[in-house]
Fold:
Amino acid sequence: MPLILTSRHAAHPDSGQVHPVPSEITPRALYATRRQWLRGAVLLGSGGLAASDWSSALAQTSAPASAATVTRPGKRSALPAVRSSVPGALAVDKLTSYEHITTYNNFYEFGTDKSDPAEYAHTLKTRPWTLSIEGEVGRPLKLGLDDLLKLGAMEERIYRLRCVEGWSMVIPWVGYSLSTLLQRAQPTSRAKFVEFISLADAQQMPGVRSSVLDWPYVEGLRIDEAMHPLTLMAFGLYGEVLPPQNGAPLRLVVPWKYGFKSAKSIVTVRLTEKPRPSSWMLANPREYGYYSNVNPTVDHPRWSQATERRIGEGGLFAPRKPTLMFNGYGAQVAQLYAGMDLRKFY
Amino acid sequence: MALSMANQWLLKPWGKPLLWAVAAVPAVALLVGALTDGLGANPAQTLIQETGEWALRWLWLTLLVTPLREMAALPALLRYRRTLGVTAFVYAVLHLLSYAWLDKGWVLDDIVADVFKRNFILVGMLTFLVMLPLALTSFNAAIRALGGRKWQLLHKLVYAVSLLGLLHFYLKKAAKNDVSEVMVYAVILALLLGWRVVRRGGILAMLRVR
Structure:
């Protein structure tokens, strides 16, 4: 599938972006007809006429595939996408503002304050960028950002994000399922876990000089969690490429787990037979477990996880809202944990 | 000559009202921020955190009075110590109220559960409780009623308050390994208390009323 870029992309003064030459830009007429063609395919699928996996997957949605709905803030290059058809991928909650999403978050590589990433992450160089997929795979891959952008169809996904600290947001991401990427590398039968390693370059990331965590930042998922269609490899938000403070150029988004599981600015994806402890588990094993599923009934040792504060909603005196099991994604993911004691495997 | 001039300035009648006005600045700034949506993405969190940190800052300033008096030969500084201490208490009250309101919605059961479940809340409450008798005896009639020696002995508790307050802050921040700021507070407190230990000749001597 070709990477769709508008002419606006080429003119955008974004730093750290290599702009495509005009010959690489898909003409507007071409990508417009592609959408028509997609819609047609969906109608066929929902009519029960097409039997291929691809069209039946699309047919799971009642709404036809349509262009992304959010209004671009105009801060970065456009990253066009169609609305996702993955069940559960389009939360109906009110979106958190672009301003809040991009100025209030944790990204310890740039400092421990939630305002630090927005302030310091401009030094992050996102091009060239290489992602290595290695370990228990039949076909180890080293992919450049352009290859990664073309590897799957970009989807808009509106996910709730619940931070372990007790606040939450609703974010319109752009990306495709991680499984699309993993399948390219042909995981072997020994691939039971997936490890995500973030960039740790003190030259670009001032926070890496501090000893607050063992660098690089490492996170991990069980292979079935990693292959779940909701597990997203995100390249953008609000219809534009990711700003550096949110984990550019590519990051993980696992909406039913606490935010820290969703590693940012990833350079290595390693499939393994055994799980490797994550950075937070090493830092504080009693407080952070491997799974870290959003769970209102299992408190963090230092605070309750029963409620959350939705950022930007209702002002100062808005009451906290109840936190939902699996962050409200139970219908899609609860079966992954059938029979497990989630108090023990927190 | 210059020092005694400074002492004379410190003794001016408008000195205390001026300090009260300065002490109110952070609270007013937070109030204005709260009313004008100027406290960032998570205003409740900002309010709780800022009032708590200001309580520590005023407390540290209170503890700075004695070393500064003796080192800089500014005996007149003494009259500001109680104002600074009461300011620290007022910010601690604001901190506790904003937690009870914005985080717990005044639900007493939730607060009580929080105290027994979480170390840092327990330590925070304890800090407040130890501070309470100091605040309640911070007016002239109380000093007269207690007598100077007893009053001074009671107010040695300020050292316990400072250590508990620091521990509360540390326990909160340690959850996300974010202790660099706590370390700054710890180093300053170590200097403030360390100066006393050295100057008085030991911890016991520091705790004795002279």
